[in-house]
Amino acid sequence: MSGSVLLRTWSQSARNDGGSTLGPAHVVGATVIDGSGCDPSNLDITIENGRITQLGASSAHGERLDAEGLTMTPGLIDAHVHLGLSSPIQPHFSFRISAAEIAADIFATAGATLDAGFTTVRDTGGIDGGVVTAIAKGKVRGPRVLSCGPVQCQIGGHGYYGAEWEPTELWSSHHIPGLCALSMMAGNADELRHNVREAFRRGASFLKLCVTGGVVGAHDRLTDTQFTVEEIAVAVQEAAARNTYVTVHAHNNEGIRNAVEAGVRCVEHGTGLDESTAALMAARDVALVPTFAVVEQLLHDIAGAGLDESTRDRAKGTRERMTKALAAAKHAGVRIGLGSDLIGPAQDRRGRELSLRAALETPMEALVAATRTNAEILGLSGQVGVIAPGAQADLVLWNGNPLKEPELFSDPTNAVLVIQAGRIVKDLR
Fold first, then answer.
1. How many C-beta neighbours within 10 Å does residue 17 have?
2. Most buried residue among 112, 172, 385, 392 by CB atoms closer than 10 A?
3. Contact assessment for residue 410 and residue 112, using Cβ atoms and an 8 Å cutoff
4. DSSP 265
5. pLDDT at 59
């Protein structure tokens, strides 16, 4: 049986049985990059009940997929996405887009994320629990989603996009329950504790706080430091009570150090990270998730994201500082993941983040960051992000070798076959 016929057979099977997992089945002939950082090898992969059961030749019965000439990687992981910001930003938050359009944009982005080879994502603010549920139930196409729900922000801080005249208490009216909820405002530790408990009630699997200003900001600056150590520690305490963690949006060193002192486990962006702060992060085992793709987006396509030119000015110089921060973090031994942070409708080339990182490190380092390391950061180590027995059968077959041509990651058409938990979810062969 030819590979193309087999692919049709698998896809039809998935449709006919309501999305049941496939197998036993064997993917043979591909060059395998397993996500561990080891050199590529030629291994057959056996899949059964949605998981990888064996590496190497197998005599067990089952269908065979001939992947000769293709390169296999684990399903990619994006540790910083905003599915809920899939509509143009300013119209979205000024009530100029209907809930139906916002939903359509979110679900289109979820499908495009899967098509780019990303089988797992961590949503760092913007969606409400209904989106996670709809994708998990298979009602719409999308990756496995871990979500913080609404971001936790201080009153008037990063994450608040209401008009200056609008009372803070009206901000929640911008939420669409079950669909999108960008942020919750807190004026003190007690209010923050209430808000994080509400986020968990609505399905959050971790927490995110904004502890500095941001590039896409309405009322703040990158140099602003937000929330006190004592306030951040409240969120850390509430997360620990649920066996999970806090990550923080942070650009400047003072905000990062406050967050690390309070006990957070991850820092997003880290644009101004210096050597001493990186050393502190390494000593406390705090991970870093740089986000280069969004900077490129803001410098070259402000209109596409639904933002004005002032945002482009704020983004200038960010890539250079983030590049220095990446080097400082590597030198200090910080665990470094990978996130795209794309916003607006143009989120179909999420793999651009790997191409950008490959130019600053190596293609293998970028791939490991987007697979094994991100799985560790998300608390899914050994379950996703690796090609190993017992792991979820999340696999991507690439038309070419992205270790030799990392630009392949940038174009989703190069991901010719995507398998998620043993199901074929994309097939271009």
1. 10
2. 385
3. no
4. S
5. 66
**In DSSP terms, which residues pair with 52 in a beta bridge?**
47
Pairing mode, strands 207-210 and 415-420: unpaired
Spatial distance between the Cα atoms of 95 and 404, rounded to a whole number of angstroms:
46
CA distance 174 to 182: 8
DSSP string, 76-114: EEEEEE-GGG-S-HHHHHTT-S-HHHHHHHHHHHHHHHH
Give one DSSP letter per residue of 284-310, joined into a string.
TT-EEE---HHHHHHHH-TGGGT--HH
Note the pLDDT tens digit of each residue in 268-318. Answer: 999 999 999 999 999 999 999 999 999 988 887 766 666 666 677 677 788
Rounded (to 5) percent helix, strand, coil in the chain: 40, 20, 40
Q: Is the dihedral of CA 219, 221, 222, 228 positive or negative?
A: negative
Helices 318-332, 293-300: crossing angle, 10 deg rounding: 170
* Residue that has been written with the tokens 């520690």 in this structure: 233
DSSP tag of 351: T
CA distance between the termini of the chain: 14
The residue written with tokens 């009530």 in the block is: 95
The identity of residue 401, as a single letter, is N
194, containing H or E segment? helix 189-201
Distance CA 241, CA 256 (A): 23
How far from 18 is each of 13, 64, 138, 258, 425, CA to CA, in Å? 9, 22, 9, 48, 13
What's the rounded Cα separation, in Å, for the pair 26 and 176? 44
pTM for the predicted model, two decimal places: 0.93
CA 293 – CA 290 distance, rounded (Å): 9
Cα–Cα dist 19/81, whole Å: 25
User: In whole angstroms, how far apart are CA 50 and each of 1, 308, 394, 422?
Assistant: 22, 45, 8, 4
Q: How far out from the chain centre does Cα 207 lie?
A: 14
- d(C-alpha 217, C-alpha 39), whole Å: 42
Rounded CA separation 121/52 (Å): 20
**Bridge partner list, 384:** 381
pLDDT at 133: 97
Identify the sign of the CA torsion 302, 305, 308, 311.
negative
Q: What is the DSSP letter of 55?
A: E
Closest CA to 123 of 143, 138, 141, 98: 143
